[in-house]
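User: Teach me something about this protein's shape.
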Amino acid sequence: MSEHRMKRFKPGNVPAYILLAFASILSIFPFYWMFVMATQPSAAYNSVPPTLLPGGMLVENFLKVLDTIPFFQAMWNTILLCTSVTILVLIISSLSGFAFAKFSFPGKNFLFICILLTMVIPPQLGLIPQYYLISQLGWLDTLFGAGILFLLNPLGIFLMRQYISESVPDELIEAAKLDGCSNFRIYRSIVLPIIKPAFATLGIIVFTLVWGEFLWQFTVLRDPSSYTLQVALASLNNAFRVDFGMMLSGVFWATVPLIVIFLIFNKWFISSITEGSIK
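Assistant: First, the predicted structure itself:
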């Protein structure tokens, strides 16, 4: 062990290291078990003792998935939906957060409180009127209808407001105004470069949220050609016989893109958390 690492290692921290290692194992184990079940026949799901080692049926189970549902079409629909919603949420939330953080206008605090209060309303309460509205507009069986409810994100507006308030100095904005910059130019040239870590954090949250959404997508998407992964995977649950190996194989491959997205933006995500803790 190098001298630098020896200085950082303290024997008194051993219990904390053990606890963190145990928590990490608990967090990773469900993903590992899902992978193991994706490589096993369906009977292994109920085996006693449980199977903890991978088998050799990963490809076979996935081929069953491809024969049962349009997996790649559903994945493309999901990626397109999540990417579009995430980009639009980032734009709307950052613009709204910028306005709430750096501008004064009548009813500003009241409007911001109203936006935050929408976070405590269960989404199931609005399911019927929202479905009626989407059906009247002719947006059933469309990705636009499946994603429009997520565009106004109260958590995103709150996060952006807080981050911009703390990270973008008022003096910098005043100096830009003196130089003749418009509000949008200030947002584009000054605010956006500063809030990249917050963008990564909110982007991961929104992408994951939309990717894992089931109830609303299941409600508005009825045509198999418009299915997202969550809706398509739900159709694998046969009422008479459930092939757990096939089902968990589909879930495993549906989880892989989320892991890739997190690994890509992991640096900015951690940077945002660390910066917030330092402040």
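Now, about its shape. The domain at 69-235 is CATH 1.10.3720.10 (MetI-like fold). The chain has a mean pLDDT of 84. If you'd like, I can walk through any region in more detail.
User: That's plenty for now, thanks!
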